[in-house]
Amino acid sequence: MKAICVNEFGGPEVLKLQEVPAPKAAAGQVLVRVHAAGVNPYETYMRAGVYPTLPPLPYTPGSDGAGVVETVGAGVKGVKPGDRVYLAKSLSGTYAQYALALEEQVHPLPESLSFAQGAGVWVPFGTAFHALVHTANARPGETVLVHGASGGVGGAAVQLARAMGLTVFGTAGTPKGMELAKREGASLVFDHGKAGYTDEIMKASGGHGVDVVLEMLANVNLAADTKLIARNGRIVVIGSRGEAAINPRELMGRRGSIRAFTLWGITPAEEKEIHAGIGAGLWNGTLRPVTGREFPLREAALAHKAIMETGAAGKIVLVT
Ligand code: NAP
Fold first, then answer.
1. What is the pLDDT of residues 170-218, one digit of tens each?
2. What spacing in Å lies between the alpha carbon of 218 and ligand 1's midpoint?
3. How do residues 242-286 score in pLDDT, each as one tens digit?
4. Binding site membership of 217 for ligand 1 (Cβ less than 6 Å)
5. Distances in Å between the alpha carbon of 194 and those of 172, 173, 202, 216, 246?
6. Cα(214)–Cα(77) distance, rounded to whole angstroms?
7. 202 phi and psi, to 5 degrees?
8. What are the DSSP calls for 118-145, one per residue?
9. Is 314 in the pocket of ligand 1 (CB under 6 A)?
10. Considering 100, 104, 171, 279, which has the largest number of Cβ atoms within 10 A of its Cβ?
């Protein structure tokens, strides 16, 4: 089969398309013919060798993907060959024509969703769910600012928060991204490249501030976020690409808090809740992953460059 292999850490050019043997499903495992693989920013940090946890070399990147079950190992009861599924992590990496996964990493994909949409489920929606439900304990009627609403996680968070009965404010850096955030459920969208936009957000909240901030770029925005939250406001750091300095007094006066996580650190019980929650939304149509640019598998390096550019508008996927 064809797979992207990383033989050494480095720039996008280390992503090599190679012919490798297809894995075989042992007991409790499922082999999936991957039709689309999701591209996430963490895969670029890992490829560059700067992520806190690094896989042994060589490896095939990717935790997100969707396709059709090819074969199942002994004891697998939940899926059978021919089933449409999405992957939430795998044993062998999803940037490949086939991926080997544990049975619990394979989830049914509704007919109404394309494989490209299925490749945009796990990291974006898993992160959005964990941020809103487990970390912020967001309640219906509250207001959430999705600071970076045009990307994979942000778009998922907008849909989820609307479905939960929150009022959603979003930000994006381009007209296309702003339109996407609005279409997916944000009642107001602000341009995070425009001077003074945080004043506009405060004004839109009636001067009270927002109850929850989901932050995609904490190194740039954290100090401003501490001034944007309402009393008992919660800031959830999802993404950060550097250090941030804040004035703790801004939090003290508001009884505010900053929480942070990585999706790798969630508990098995939380993971089960995430799949129950997002699974329900995918099947009833409330959650609809928004796809963006598609690249053939051999152009994984271009996809890695694209995911780090500004001007996000939906999920970037590799088609195999
Ligand atoms: P993505 O699809 O590339 O989207 C990036 C988002 O950041 C876009 O909405 C982009 O908006 C926005 N952004 C750019 N400049 C910004 C600014 N000054 N203020 C606010 N937002 C800004 O990436 P993603 O998959 O959504 O991930 C977002 C971040 O979360 C990444 O850093 C990623 O590594 C991290 N992440 C963390 C976890 C975790 O477990 N903690 C899980 C998933 C992702 P424009 O392009 O419109 O400017």
1. 999 999 999 999 999 999 999 999 999 999 999 999 999 999 999 999 9
2. 10
3. 999 999 999 999 999 999 999 999 999 999 999 999 999 999 999
4. yes
5. 10, 8, 15, 17, 21
6. 37
7. -60, -45
8. HTTSHHHHHHHHIIIIIIS---TT-EEE
9. no
10. 171
**CA 135 to chain CA centroid, nearest Å:** 15
- Cis-peptide, bond into residue 248, ω within 30° of zero: no
For 280-312, what is each residue's pLDDT tens digit?
999 999 999 999 999 999 999 999 999 999 998
Mean pLDDT of 130-155: 98
Does one domain contain both 58 and 71?
A: yes
pLDDT at 312: 82
Global pTM exceeds 0.90: yes
How far is Cα 268 from Cα 256, in angstroms, rounded to an integer?
28
Q: How far is the CA of 216 from the centre of ligand 1 (A)?
A: 4
| Residue 258 shares a structural domain with residue 130 | yes
Residue 186 sits in which domain range? Answer: 124-264
Rounded to whole angstroms, the Cα distance separating 190 from 171 reads 5
Q: Compute, in angstroms, the gap from residue 314 CA to the centroid of ligand 1.
A: 11
Distance (Å) from CA 154 to ligand 1 centroid: 7
- Tell me which residue has its CA closest to atom 25 in ligand 1: 152
| CATH number assigned to the domain comprising residue 43 | 3.90.180.10
Residue 19 lies in a domain: yes
Q: Is the dihedral of CA 269, 272, 274, 280 positive or negative?
A: negative
